[in-house]
Amino acid sequence: MNVVIGSILIFCGVFFVVVAAIGVVRLPDFYARLHASGKAETLGAILCLTGLAVYCGPNQTSLKLILIIFFLLFANPVGTHVISRAAFRYGILPWKKRKE
Questions:
Q1: How far is residue 97 from each of residues 29, 60, 70, 87, measured CA to CA in Å?
Q2: Please, which of 1, 58, 62, 85 could form a disulfide with 53 given CB 3.0 to 4.6 Å?
């Protein structure tokens, strides 16, 4: 049962990481790309690590994976915010749709 639940979580995590990669390629400006990578990649990584923790079962490796999950949960949003704030202060303006 752990294998099935772990595999589903890992598959969902990989899906969100792929969506984040597509968002980085397809979105029009720096801030939209940063938003896509920050949100979807964080969720994808957390789902993948949760799936690995479930797959491993209750042991020391799962505890380490849970600690990594908590670190990612706090570090990725803060890092995204710091990068976007630095870009805005540097002068990178958000994309605006042209009037036709």
A1: 11, 51, 38, 20
A2: 62
Q: What is the rounded distance in angstroms from the CA atom of residue 6 to the CA atom of residue 23?
A: 26
Per-residue pLDDT of the chain (100 residues; tens, 9 = 90+): 889 999 999 999 999 999 999 999 999 889 999 998 888 999 999 999 999 999 998 999 999 999 999 999 999 999 999 999 999 999 888 887 777 6
**Rounded-to-integer distance, Cα 63 and Cα 77, Å:** 22
pTM: 0.86
Residues in the chain: 100
Residues in Cβ contact with 17 at an 8 Å cutoff, skipping those fewer than 6 apart = 40, 41, 44, 45, 48
Domain layout of the chain by residue ranges: 2-90
